[in-house]
Structure prediction request, 171 residues.
Amino acid sequence: MKKFAFFTLLIMFFAGVVCAAEKPAVGYVNLHKVLLESKVGKRNKADLDKLIKEKESAFAGEESKLQAMQQAFQKDQLLMTDAQKLEKQKAFQEKAEAYQKMVGEAKQIVSKKDNEYAKKSVADIKAVVADVAKEMKLNLVLDASEGRVLYAEEGMDLTQKVIEKYDAKAK
Prediction:
């Protein structure tokens, strides 16, 4: 019985040494690159660009109205009384503030949409990274876009494989 216990301990010891001698399997992914270069990322960017252009075209008319008001004021200010000048300046200031408010709201809408896309994409990408890591029997995968990888062998970069798999899922 003592021999059996000794053998068991000996086997466990050598198994531990062998396991400890194995290199930990580590890879990295450039998450930022996946977000930009994947089909979903390109589609999201196109949607955001379209939204930005829509907002910018809505502002173009307001901006030209503001410029016309300013030019009319500068042209006619010598003929105006002080009260008229104050009234025109106040009207211009109100329109300028309304314009700035519209621009600020539009930026918030675009930012919110961008955050929604990123949140969903990151969740989906993490699932793909987990699949790739399991396939390649990796213990750890780092995000290279966060600048936390100081050195890595080329074979450890999973970015392209993740993009391909993410694109395949996004069909």
The beta strands are 26-29, 140-143. DSSP finds five helices and two strands in the chain. Confidence is low (pLDDT under 50) at residues 1-10, 12-21. The longest helix spans residues 82-135.
